[in-house]
Amino acid sequence: MVRSLLLPVLTGVLLVALGGSKNAGSAPSDATRIPSPAGWPGGSTPLSSLHGGGAFQKNERPLKGAANGIYPGLTREQEGRWTKPFFFIQLADSQFGMFGDDRSWEKETELLTRAVAHINRLRPRFVVVCGDLVNQPVGGPYYEAQVAEFQRIARQIDPSIPLVCLPGNHDVGGRPTPVTLADYRRRFGDDWFSFWVGGVCCLVLNSCLYSDPSGAPGEQERQAAWFARTLEAADQAGARHILVFQHHPWFLEKPDEPDGYFNIPRERREPALALMRRAGVRAIFAGHYHRNASGRDGQMEMVTTSAVGRPLGNDPSGLRIVAVYEDRIAHHYYSLDEVPEAVALE
Question: What is the pLDDT of residue 346?
Fold first, then answer.
């Protein structure tokens, strides 16, 4: 079997495998076959409730967000012990308004509604949206309506499935400021925090501050100090795996690649990568690129996921399913037309 092959097969789903638990320190294993979900490939769910917009109603439940650096219900005390394999779903770049130059977002509504139907059918342990929830920046004439539409659809995710949101450069700006950060936090909760699921420690970063901290340098200093402390604490706590979620990739293919729009400058990239290697981070999941990409820094994988909204390359709008085992992590990207009917873990 070919290592790190990203191909679906008719008798099963072949996933990239990140082998070895953090504590075991073993080399990445070969790609792992997960038994075929019934009816693969799955078709899209009928969009009986599809429409191009909707106003927020005051009696609708608010989106749950992190507070004081912790996501409610997913604490180490509640979820710090490994129990059994699970899977989660990663989305990125819903970016309401990108298809229609900010004046309309019917296509984004359609795509995210389809993704939510898949989520509710598959019932992952949690869902994470890796930034650029909307397209227009804070204060733009369509910003409020785009945020309201994203939240309306996200609110349709079954409340028993935790939804983790984090900011992208379109949410807090390519150069975040105290104003844009305060607006995001008011709507979505903390922009950097940690949570635990089944013995796995997950850290969420505001990568926009790592990309350009000049508009809020004190905020980035606090985030960087928190990140170092929390990585060390997760390592000392014996987390089965440590995962990191953010918007910008640290790198697309190589940890020493030149600075560019789609990665984080090496000035801040290299110290952060060193911290994560030392703590034994298994994988980092990001978006921003609107295409799929992957690279490694030792045993740590950098996974960049294409957009559930408008793609910029050959990868269609879709989502990533990530299976978490005691000794490895496996993942596969699906277009919204090919999401399986169910996920069968080994």
Answer: 86
Tell me, rounded to whole angstroms, the distance of Cα 268 from its chain centroid: 21
Residue 126 domain-assigned (yes or no): yes
In a domain, 50, yes or no: no
In-domain check, residue 33: no
Tens of pLDDT, residue by residue over 72-97, are 999 999 999 999 999 999 999 999 99
pTM of the predicted structure, to 2 decimals: 0.86
CATH of the domain at 101: 3.60.21.10
What amino acid occupies position 123? Answer: R
Residue 22 has pLDDT above 90, yes or no: no
- Predicted pLDDT of residue 17: 56
Task: Identify the pLDDT of residue 19.
Answer: 54
- 117 in a structural domain: yes
Number of domains in the chain: 1
Average pLDDT rounded to a whole number, residues 214-240: 98
Residue length of the chain: 346
Q: What is the pLDDT of residue 39?
A: 28
